[in-house]
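Person: Please comment on this record:
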Amino acid sequence: MMWASSTSFVDKSPRAIIRNSRHFSFSLFRLFIARSAAPQRLKNARKHTIPNCEFRNWELRMLRCEASITTAGNFMTATIIVFLTACLLLAVLAARRRRLSRILSSIEDGLLAFDKQARLVFANEAGSHIIRTAGADLSASLETAARESATGGLEYFHGALNRWFDVQSYGRRDGGVAVVARDVTASRRLQNALRAGEERFQKLMDSGVLGVFVTDREFITEANAAFLAMTGYTKDDVMKRQARWKDIAGGFELERAVGDGVKTPVEIDLIRRGGRPVPALMMAIPVSDAPLEVIGLVIDLTQRMLALRRMQGIADASRILESSLDYEKTFNELAKFMAANFCEHCAIFTYEDNEFHQIAAARSDAARVPFADAINTDVMKRVLRSGRSEWAPSRAGAPVSAIVPGPGRSKIACVLVLTGVQRTRQDGPDMNLFEEIGRRAGLALEHARLYESVQEASRLKDEFVAMVSHELRTPLTPILGAVYMVRNDPGNMTILHRSLDLIERNAKAQSKIVEDLLDVSRIISGKLRLNMETVDLHAVVSAAAETVRPASEAKNIAMELSLRPLRGVVYGDAGRLQQVVWNLLANSVKFTPSGGRITVDLDESGVYAQLRVSDTGVGIGPEFLPHVFDRFRQADGSQTRPHGGLGLGLAIVRHLVESHGGAIQADSSGRHKGATFTVKLPLRPTAQDAGKARAGN
């Protein structure tokens, strides 16, 4: 029987141990193989019970078996059996340990074991990698975290590694701690990314601009506030599955947007609860893991459509306003356009002489009430003063009106009145549209009137040139006639004296025309000079009256002077002031028929000296009265007019009076009712009055 050291069986498999143990005892192994051989009684030995063995599945199992052997003779045999049993057990345990080690090494989680003193006593391959990567501080941190959490789990963040670990701790029998550490950084980042995506989606859902909805192709299952606001439904309607897609889409087939898989936005009309269509731009996205679900993104195009409508309206109105400089024709076309597209009635007014004047009006076929019943002049005046648009409240049976100013460069040129306006809100896009059209209408009206003014100025210039030519030629005709008469009979003294008087009178008339032209030129260029001094206004008026008196007497016109004393003096240019009085008197003599009367009054009016020249002449028509002081303007500008002159005298008078700090005004009750010209010049106290005032002080 051979002896083998127990170390030769360490780390051997049971099969290897059996294969290498054939030399021990054939009968013994036969006993093993036979599993339960009959007990044998040996001669000359004591009875003794020993454990018998059987080999089952390569494991050594100890069985109780009765056998009689002598202690001395069988001691070694018993020892071999016990020894062989222990070696086989060690081999089995080692095999199990290897299998367990392979299993633990294949686990991706880190397995760590710590004893009572927090010393690392075991680590699988993943745990060893964690320790090698992070160092001993992570090992200590995991052990501390595990003990603090007792039995259970927690998430631990290692700042140096910027890694997250899921730590599961278990108590050991020896008082230590077993730790399962899983690196959850990737999953944590995935969760964070998922959470961020959900937050972004929620923000998208909560946005007030983009409508978002989810539908199962039959009902709206989820929708944000913007989509609900577009369609008029509520969250409760969605939860109760009362928001049907067909009712909202208005017959639009969702498959048209998602069938080909192309994410192309389409324009549709969503039907708002109540039936009003809402223009929208929609993109539908099918959900990959739920074939019946579709996510829809919707943008409300109402404001865009209104903006396009506004731009188109402005463009059309501008085209009308630019079509002609005849503003009456143009504004009638504009009123028709507004009534056809935006309201029931449209009227355009100007404000002149404290009154509204209608220059254009139109009504649509759908007008319900007469336009006059909808006009609110109080609101119109308020808009004219403030320059801001207003909605005029409706009266009984009258539609609401929009009152819109038409501002020019310096003032409100016109007012647009639009009745029966279909508006969404009082400050809505309709009013913005009307205000822009009103602004363009005001400028167009102002430009048209400026054009008329330019045309009128051009006409007046032509008339003035013709008039000047006529007026300059008129004195030359008698002068040439007088020269011809003298030459024909040079010795006739009567003809000579009469011809000289005629030549002198007409030369003075021509000189007066030239002086007026030069004065106008000086006024326009700002070169008119005044020699200012204390003026005796009584003497000035008397001298001018005496100059004009022969002409008035020749026409049998009575001239009455009433010159009252003044408590002050006038400071001015005596010659120019005499020119003022002479022009006024000459103008009255010219336009007063034979047998008429001219009255000259000089008096005080407050701190002014007031000169009033009245006549019983042809008067001034109300249409010409505002232009009576304009240059080159005459009530009758034709060359066949009965009265001569260039129409410069009163323009020169106004400028001279205003240059002295005064004012002039013309009044007339109408044609053939005479005219009154009132001149006011500031008075200054006399030297004596000034001395008394200083003495009193």
